[in-house]
Amino acid sequence: MTVFESKVLLNQPISKVYAFLEDLNNHEGLMPENVYNWSSTKDEARFTIQNMAKLALKIDSRIENKEVLIVPAEEAPIALNLKWTLTDNGDTTEAKLTISAELNMMMKMLASGPLQKLTDYQTNALAGKIG
Asked: Which InterPro entries match (predicted)?
């Protein structure tokens, strides 16, 4: 597995950050501009990435105020998961996004840059939404 990580420190209580992340309806605001045709429920989201693929993601597990694990809801072009991990620091909350993807050498060369950019984009967008 190839792992991409990004962290952000938010001036919000962990319960507020968790409440935002555990609802996939809120994740549209964390996506870059090349994501369109977004439709979602609390547990599942479907969207298209421009010039790439259509994806369907679902919440696989939730651990209140700690973790949200998101996995493909149907067959995806690459095997991957997205995990938000939250750490309570008293007045602040650290949110870490980890994207794990099964990439062969060719896909690693093509997808590593965009996947790291996505990881960084989502944590920065989260800071802009609720930070």
From this structure: START-like_dom_sf
Q: Which pTM value belongs to this model?
A: 0.94
Q: How would you class 116 by CB atoms within 10 Å of its CB: exposed for 0-12, middle for 13-18, buried for 19 or more?
A: middle
Query: If you search the block for the tokens 């501009």, which residue do you land on?
Result: 33
CA torsion sign, 50 to 51 to 56 to 60? negative
Q: Rounded CA gap, 55 and 38, in Å?
A: 10
Residue 93 near residue 86, CB atoms below 8 Å: yes
Look up residue 97 and give its amino acid: L
Quote the domain boundaries for residue 60: 2-130
- Summarised one tens digit per residue, pLDDT across range 26-53 is 999 999 999 999 999 999 999 998 877 7
Tens of pLDDT along 73-91?
998 888 899 999 999 999 8
CA distances from 119 to 31, 82, 90, 91, 104 (A): 10, 9, 25, 24, 19
